[in-house]
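FAQ: What does the model actually see?

It sees only this:
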Amino acid sequence: MRDARVALCFLTRLPVGWPAGGDAVTLAAASRTFPVVGLVTGGLSAIFWLVLRDTGLPVLPAAVLTIGLGVLMTGALHEDGLADMADGAGAGADRERRLEIMRDSRIGAYGVLAIVFSAGLRVTCLAAFPDPRFGAAALVAAHVGGRAGLPAVMRLLPRARTDGLSVTAGSPDDRSALLSAGIGIFLVLLFAGFEAGLTAAALTALALWLTSIWAKRRLGGQTGDVLGGMEQIGEMVILLTLVVAIT
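And it is asked to produce this:
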């Protein structure tokens, strides 16, 4: 329970309160509960989505507001990482320059396009589900699956910098990485169904692997921005896979 509260404090703006003894817990140690964070944010988003649809609000505004709630709950942490990663990917410079661009607080054209693409894809996927209940289940699966693989990336991919969030977070042990992945896969299968959930989980793992290869070659490893970008990629892959499977 303490690890989950630490992870929620790191990854969201939800007022859960810092747990007693939490100062001794690193984000790496708490990373086994990343899927629990997704279960909370995804669950709240799903409830909000169902309430909006039950009031008769048209599907597209309801989808925009629901995705917006997810952004508010995390303080746009993952969207910011995606934007910085996109700016770094678009830079035709050397490794150090790419990392410098990613650290710059100003957002570039590639970053803007990445955020627009991510938000647009998630909104349209959610709006495309024929039944609001399917959309609600897919939201939970996406929030869980987008976070479940991050501890494995933190464990296996070297850090690109000697400072920053990825250094502060530390490196999870094998057990934490496997536990997070296992919990994540179980929850994705639970909410998405076996066949669609397994396909979504496999495609998400493939997307994270390919992104890891890019990060290793272009940046020298992972950063907090890369992890945030991977979370967004995971959400998009899962929502897109499930909407294709259901429709």
